[in-house]
Amino acid sequence: MEETMHTTSNTAIHDPAAPKPPFSLYLLGCALVAALGGLLFGFDTAVISGTVDALRAKFALSDNLLGFTVASALIGTILGSIGAGRPADIFGRRAALAALGVIYVVSSLGCAFSWDWWSFLAFRFLGGLAVGGASVVSPLYIAEISPAYYRGRMVAITQFNVVLGILLAYLSNYLIGGMHLGENEWRWMFGVMAAPSLMFFLLIFLTPQSPRWLVAQGRLDEARTVLQRCGSDTGSVEGEIREIQQSMDLTHHSLKEPFYCRRYLKPIMLAVAMGAFNQLSGINAVLYYTPSIFKTAGAGVESALLQSVIIGFTMLVFTMIAMVIIDHFGRRKLMIVGSFGYIIGLAGATYAFYAKVEGPLLLASLIVFISAHGFGQGAVIWVFISEIFPNRVRARGQALGSFTHWAMNAAISWTFPMIAAAAGWMAFAFYALCMVGQLVWVLLIMPETKGVSLEQIQEKLGIE
Predict the structure, then answer these.
(1) Residue 373: which CATH number?
(2) Are 308 and 168 in contact, with CB atoms under 8 Å apart?
(3) 12 domain-assigned
(4) Could you tell me which of 286, 292, 387 has the C-alpha nearest to residue 330?
(5) What does the angle CA 301 – CA 305 – CA 308 come to, to the nearest 5 degrees?
(6) Which of the 8 DSSP states describes residue 235?
């Protein structure tokens, strides 16, 4: 296989002559169920934002310990993301998603009934394992059941649900905060997540196994059935099966072969860059501390929670827009527009804090910033990482991209309270500079992956 792809700004992996498969409502239903893992991921990520002050008071936390408390889930998330690939390969994507549903239930109830700081940390860590696992397995599963023509939109449902989960967490916190439940208010904020977690666990059993995982297991008849119901890239189920088998080439490769080797260097570097830049925007620092940021700017408690809802709703709207156009405009164009939006929004927030004119300017800047995230990196990251690795190592590649994302997330979230306490403008200025770096990376290196089957992407990247 001699063909290679130059990852420059004018090169795209795209076949305009690729057939358009019929749209399958069954495919949509399966994607929606799997993406519920993303909704729980988003809810769990953002729910702590409304509890920060209560946790500080309840457990007498310093700025450093508060940062560690918020980051405790992220430590679990890092381990969950790097460890999810192997079980997903051994037991299947569906079984892995079911296990994550159980962990979500236990974590949410455990946080609600935690009896001291250590027990709270333990259950937040457990929830982090589920979030990390969901960030790997949900987009991985959806990518593997979706024809190329619809893959961007289908995988982007995961990110839509992540954002929906964030909005629901903000809205839930706002509604619970309005009930004035006293010192146990924060417990209710965590506990409500048990209901959607249980629903996710039950619904996942209505979905099929991934056809690519079934082929790897030699269960070809089952794979044929799934492809017939979800659709194929070639229009021929048998042709699709052969293409998947060829991409795996298990005669010359093993599902257990080394992952970190020269053969996979190109997708590894792309996944690491995508995951790192996602968090170097400061997105999760803003999501975790949104009410605190607005309170620092002079807003009252209820006003800060309401403005958090506005931020969450804005990101949902722009994520929806990106979902509609990602398979038409492609991944790179969304990233370019998003990078410019990041830079403008972060520059505005930097000035607002530096000049101490926060108020409307800060809210407007954060709305631009969050819109850019929803339209760009937020919509693209899980789609892109799920596409660029060969079938035989895709789970491990997805795990690496997610691990990078969450490791950077933990570092950013842990340090933000300390930097913000010293000078809030410095944090936003650093994030803005990093987004200039992202723009350069997208323009010069990031390839386009829209509209081509997973197996053909492997070929275009020059991976034997």
Answers:
(1) 1.20.1250.20
(2) no
(3) no
(4) 387
(5) 140
(6) S
Residues 121, 128: Cα–Cα separation, whole Å: 10
Question: Which stretch, 96-105, 153-162, 218-227, 404-413, has highest mean pLDDT?
Answer: 96-105
Q: 103: closest CA among 127, 71, 85?
A: 127
The answer to whether residue 143 is domain-embedded is: yes
List the domain range (segments joined by +) for residue 61.
Answer: 25-249+259-460
Tokens read off for 309? 């809802």
C-alpha 108/C-alpha 85 separation (Å) is 24
Paired strand residues for 12: 448
pLDDT at 418: 74
Dihedral in degrees, nearest 10, Cα atoms 150, 10, 445, 41: -20
Domain assignment of residue 1, yes or no: no
CB atoms within 10 A of CB 56: 17
Q: How many CA atoms lie within 13 A of 318 on its CB side?
A: 23
Return d(Cα 83, Cα 77) in angstroms, integer. 10
Domain count, the chain: 1
Give 446's DSSP letter. P
Q: Which of 228-232, 299-303, 379-383, 416-420 has the highest mean pLDDT?
A: 379-383
Tokens 């979030």, located at residue: 131
- The verdict on residue 298 lying in a domain is yes
Dump the DSSP string for 326-362: HHHH-HHHHHHHHHHHHHHHHHHHHHHHHTT--HHHH
Distances (CA, A) of 132 to 99, 228, 388, 404: 13, 31, 19, 11
Per-residue pLDDT tens digits for 373-391: 999 998 899 889 988 888 7
Q: Which residue has the higher pLDDT, 6 or 413?
A: 413
> Phi and psi at residue 448, in whole multiples of 5°?
-95, 140
* Look-up of token digits 């070929």: 459
Rounded CA gap, 39 and 135, in Å?
10
Structure tokens at 315: 């990101």
User: Model-level pTM?
Assistant: 0.74
AA letter at 194: A
For residues 322 and 329, give the distance between their C-alpha atoms in angstroms, rounded to a whole number: 9
Q: What is the mean pLDDT of the chain?
A: 82
What is residue 52's predicted lDDT score, i.e. its pLDDT? 78
Q: Give the tokens for residue 74.
A: 């992220």
